[in-house]
Amino acid sequence: MRRYLPVARQHFLAALAGTSVVVKSLSAAVLLLYLLSFGLDTAYGLGVTPGYLLPPNFWVWTLLTHGLVEERAWGLAASLATLGAAGRLLEPLWGALELLVFFTVVNVSVGLLGALAYFLTYVASFHLAYLFTVRIHGGLGFLGGVLVALKQTMGDSTILKVPQVRMKAVPMLLLLLLALLRLAALVKSNVLASYGFGLLSGWVYLRFYQRHSRGRGDMSDHFAFATFFPEILQPVVGLVANLVHGILVKVKVCRKTVKRYDVGAPSSITISLPGTDPQDAERRRQLALKALNERLKRVEDQSAWPSMEDDEEEAAAKADSPLLPDPGAAGKGASQESNLITFQDAPSQL
C-alpha cells in the first residue's frame, strides 16, 4: 500500500485535473461527506431510508444526496474512480451539463426504485426493518449507469486480454459478482439493489430519453436490453423485453420505435432508426474503402514489375559490343540500298 498508494493518488489527481467543474465538485462533495462520516451519521440524514421517504416524513432531499454518501474506504475509492472515468470518457462526448443530468437521473431513479422494492418487501413480510433500518447510499448506482454508458460507446473494446473480457460484458459480470457476494452474506442487500437499479435506470434513460443531435435515445440493435445477457439467453430475454416494452408503450411510459424511409435518396431505399445517424455508416464505409485501397497499393508495390531502365542498359551494352551485330543497323542499310536501286531504275522506266 505504501508503494502503490502514492502512484494511484498521482494518477487520480492527473485524471481529475482534466475534468470540468462538475466532476471536481462531485468528487469534493464525496470526499467531504466521507470525512464527516467519522463524526456524524451521514447515511441516516442523507441516505435514502424507505420509511422516511414515504409520507408523512417526505425526506425527498435524500434522493439527490444518497449517491454522494460513503462510509467505507473501498466505497470512497469506487465513487471517486467512477466520477473520474465518467469525466474522462463520457464528458467529452456529452458535455458537463449532460453528465450532471445523467448523474441526477440515475441517483434519483435508484432512490425511488430502491425504496419501492423495500416497501414491497415489507408488504410481503411485514418486517419493519425493511422500512427504517435499510440505508440506500453510495456510488454503486452511478457506477452501474456509467458502465451501461461505456457499453453503449465502447462496447467492443477489450478490458482484459487473459481471459478476454470486452466492455459490453462488464456490467452483467459485476452484477453476477455482487449477487454471489450477497448470497455469501459478504455484502448487504442495499449494495446489490443500488447497482442493479443503477444499471436499469441508466439503460432506460440512454435508450429512450437522452437528447442529442440525432434526436432522442438510442434504438440501435447493439444496445438492446437482451445484449446484456449471454447469447444463449438473448432470444428469451428479447421476447420478454419486447412484451414489457409493448405494455409500457400502451401506458405511454415509453415511445414506440419509428422507422423512417428516405425514398428520395440517390441510392436504394435508406432506413434509419431514431438515435442512429446514416452519416456515421457512410463515414465508416469510406474509412473501410480507404483502408482497402491502401492495402491493395502496398501489395502492388511489393510485386516485381519490369523496369524500363534495365531495357535501356541492355540496349547500350549491345551497341558498344563489336561482336554482336546491330539488327537495327542492318535493317537501315538494306532500306537505303533498296531506295538507291529504285532511284537508278527510274530513268529507264521513263
Automatic annotation (TrEMBL):
Keywords: Membrane, Transmembrane, Transmembrane helix
Name of this protein: Transmembrane protein 115
One Pfam family from the record: DUF1751
A Gene Ontology molecular function term of the record: identical protein binding
Transmembrane segments: 12-36, 97-120, 126-148, 169-186, 192-209
InterPro entries: Rhomboid-like_sf (IPR035952), TMEM115/Pdh1/Rbl19 (IPR013861)
Cellular localization per UniProt: Membrane
Record SMART domains: DUF1751
A GO biological process held by the record: retrograde vesicle-mediated transport, Golgi to endoplasmic reticulum
Record field: compositional bias (Polar residues): 335-350
Membrane topology label: Multi-pass membrane protein
Keyword flag Ubl conjugation: no
Superkingdom per UniProt: Eukaryota
UniProt organism field: Aquila chrysaetos chrysaetos
Annotated stretches, region: Disordered: 300-350
GO (cellular component) term, any one: Golgi cisterna membrane
